[in-house]
Amino acid sequence: MSAHKKTEPTSEPKNRGDTDAPSDVPLRVIQLTDSHLFADPAGKLLGLTTRRSFETVLALAIERSAPVDALVMTGDLVHDGSTRGYRYLRRVLEATRLPCFCIPGNHDQRDRMGECLGPLNVADLSVQRLGTWNLIFVDSTSPGEDGGWIAGHQLDGLEHRLAHETAPSILFLHQHPLPVESVWMDTMDVRNGADLLAVCDRHSGVQAVVFGHIHQGFGCRRAGARALGAPSTCVQFLPGSRNFALDPSPPG
Questions:
Q1: C-alpha 204: how far from chain center
Q2: Distances (CA, A) of 117 to 86, 109, 112, 113, 191
Q3: According to the model, what pLDDT value does residue 66 have?
Q4: 74 forms bridges with which residues in the sheet?
Q5: Which is the most buried residue in 70, 119, 149, 225, by most CB within 10 A?
Q6: For the segment 136-162, what is each residue's pLDDT rounded down to a tens digit?
Q7: How far is residue 226 from each of residues 56, 163, 211, measured CA to CA in Å?
């Protein structure tokens, strides 16, 4: 994804990482999601070897998106919640030498994920400044459920931060906060997603709300922000389906 907001240029050029750099340079963020990795390198989900597909998608994304400012992984990172799976993921992400941010999904073991990923883990509510942009990360997972829930303290914290911030922002979470027109998938959304979107609607700085979970591409514009869902790095779900159905589309 590419974010772009025009401002007046400064008198001297700045590095891309400077917080006061001009924002007329696009911000390029790679979002990867739902990798469903296993401790076993040969582990498969619905017949697909997830480590192999993840490595291929990651390499292609970096190659085709250069230069890249950051890499965000939006949950369901390790399907079996294993220490070996998370340690493998950390090695691969650190080898990219990019700023990397990971949030949990409903299949992740949050405590183990935090222990193994260390500074790459940004659970609960976190705001990271990147150039003149804010990347906002919200943990939408609800223990024991496939669907999600945004806790009250997260909504209050988000409201407070956006009320005191003028920088443009992109918000990332795992589950989708609005319907994606797939009946079975929409039973596993963020139950109070409307509350999250209402907070975003009150603050014009929010440029996009970005999520995973749905294993398919999705995009729409609502109020002043775009809602964007990404396909999985492994298997895809058939868009618009009433019941569970796989899409033959390749990893994305």
A1: 20
A2: 7, 12, 8, 6, 28
A3: 81
A4: 103
A5: 225
A6: 999 999 999 999 999 999 999 999 999
A7: 28, 20, 11
HEC string of the chain equals CEECCCCCCCCCCCCCCCCCCCCCCCEEEEEECCCCECCCCCCEECCEEHHHHHHHHHHHHHHHHCCCCEEEEECCCECCCCHHHHHHHHHHHHHCCCCEEEECCCCCCHHHHHHHHHHHECCCEEEEEECCEEEEEECCECCCCCCECCCHHHHHHHHHHHHCCCCCEEEECCCCCCCCCCCCHHHHCECCHHHHHHHHHCCCCEEEEEECCCCCCEEEEECCEEEEECCCCCCEECCCCCCCCEECCCCC
User: What is the per-residue pLDDT across 160-204, written as a single tens digit (0 to 9) for each?
Assistant: 999 998 899 999 999 999 999 999 999 999 999 999 999 999 999
pLDDT at 222: 85
How much is the average pLDDT of 65-72? Answer: 93
Look up residue 110 and give its two tokens: 């949050």
Distance CA 213, CA 162 (A): 25
The C-alpha angle with vertex 211 and arms to 217 and 244, in degrees rounded to 5, equals 55
Task: Specify the pTM.
Answer: 0.89
